[in-house]
Specification:
By secondary structure, the chain is of the alpha/beta class. It has helices spanning 2-9, 22-28, 97-102, 123-132, 134-153, 172-190, 206-218, 222-235, 254-264, 281-289, 303-316, 365-374, and strands at residues 32-36, 41-43, 51-57, 60-64, 68-71, 76-80, 85-89, 94-95, 108-112, 116-122, 162-167, 194-198, 239-243, 270-274, 292-298, 326-331, 348-351.
Length: 381
């Protein structure tokens, strides 16, 4: 219970709240802290409004009604149209309160878009808290008024950037080269800033990239990060390198890393991550929250058998939670022939980029085509 009190004290809604009141302390026993996996439905449009929710870590997307295809048994989002995205709630944000106070069913659907930790306040408890402290009601009116004004002034659809992670098990050192190669191909295509998080050492300007990551992540402050994101997105249409090798050496904080990545993708359409060894906990998090896992492999006689082996392992470890989330990308030379796997043509691609391990990948039409597919910008006659 003390943990819940400490969390509420930090929120502006409860800034004047009397936490020493014995009656109120009893009410706090009904409040829960719950963990949700990515793509979990918290509530659907048409359901009774029974709780008020506060995001402690992660992100929750709110979609308008009748726009989704849900898997009822798994209670997970199967597909959605981003044009029906109404809002995104990050750390500290409260949602679900409007339907509750109006005494109506939910008019929208709330879905987690990362692994998320949420404070769940039962509706009857929330009403009693308001009745016991009228200042809470005033703070709530201010919050709703501010949110309503923002909605009127900003008619743009909220952005949820994509996260692409990569693996290259048989040639780990080439993983960085491939993701840097993809970063610049994506930059050419979208003409927007691309964030590239990597873990190699000895790269040009490496110390600068390490310092920038430490400045943004270690001293994680939303205002500071927002200023950086706005400045970069307005003034620097380029690939921004962040060397995150410090994540492998310091204490790992899962929720802090989730919030950091969630905040970045509010401002940038693409975040590319050169995933280090799966022995590191942060690597496992990257794979679980990514929109696509790019699995690079040197094409050879055993490629198809190895692909099935890796796919089975990744499924057992719980890294794959969406259909076609993993994309196998085989590097090959121009002269090499490849089999046609029609049953999996949407998840297997062959790139004519491979020359030698220590050389940069070579751009050609196969690479450009794959980038357009990843960005949903494929062209047809």
């Amino acid at each position: 219970m003390q943990e819940i009190i400490n969390l509420l004290k930090k929120h502006s809604l409860f800034s004047t709240f009397n936490f020493s009141n014995k009656t109120i302390k009893q009410l706090f026993k009904e409040i829960q802290i719950l963990d949700y996996n990515k793509n979990t439905i918290i509530y659907e449009a048409g359901q009774p409004a029974q709780n008020v929710y506060m995001v402690l870590s992660g992100e929750v997307a709110i979609y308008s009604n009748n726009t989704h295809d849900f898997k009822e048994k798994e209670n997970q989002l199967s597909s959605f149209d981003k044009n029906y995205l109404m809002s995104v709630h990050g750390k500290g944000s409260i949602f679900g309160e409007v339907s509750l106070l109006a005494g109506e069913t939910h008019s929208s659907t709330a879905v987690t878009i990362t692994k998320t930790k949420i404070l769940v306040i039962p509706g009857n408890i929330f009403i009693q808290l308001i009745e016991n402290d009228h200042q809470l009601a005033i703070n709530l009116i201010k919050l709703l008024s501010s949110r309503f004004r923002q909605r009127i002034e900003n008619k743009k659809i909220p952005q949820i950037g994509k996260i692409f992670c990569s693996l290259y098990p048989d040639i780990p050192m080439r993983n960085f080269k491939m993701m840097r190669f993809f970063s610049y191909l994506i930059l050419k295509e979208i003409r927007e800033t691309v964030i590239f998080i990597y873990f190699q050492q000895g790269i040009e300007n490496d110390e600068v990239h390490q310092k920038l990551f430490l400045d943004l992540y270690t001293q994680f402050n939303e205002d500071h990060l927002a200023d950086f994101c706005i400045y970069i997105s307005n003034n620097n249409k380029n690939v921004i390198y962040l060397n995150a090798i410090s994540l492998l050496k310091s204490d790992y904080n899962e929720h802090k890393l989730i919030d950091f990545l969630a905040y970045l993708r509010r401002y940038f359409s693409l975040i590319l991550i050169e995933t280090p060894s799966l022995d590191f906990e942060c690597s496992q998090l990257f794979l679980r929250i990514s929109d696509h896992i790019l699995f690079f492999h040197r094409y050879g006689a055993t490629s198809i058998a190895l692909k099935e082996l890796y796919l089975e392992q990744l499924q057992k470890q719980g890294f794959l939670d969406q259909e076609n989330k993993i994309i196998f990308i085989y590097e090959k030379s121009i002269k090499e022939k490849t089999p046609f796997e029609i049953s999996q043509k949407n998840t297997i691609y062959y790139l004519k980029t491979y020359v030698e391990e220590n050389l940069e990948p070579q751009e050609d039409k196969s690479a450009r085509r794959l980038i357009r597919i990843l960005l949903n910008r494929s062209r047809a006659l």
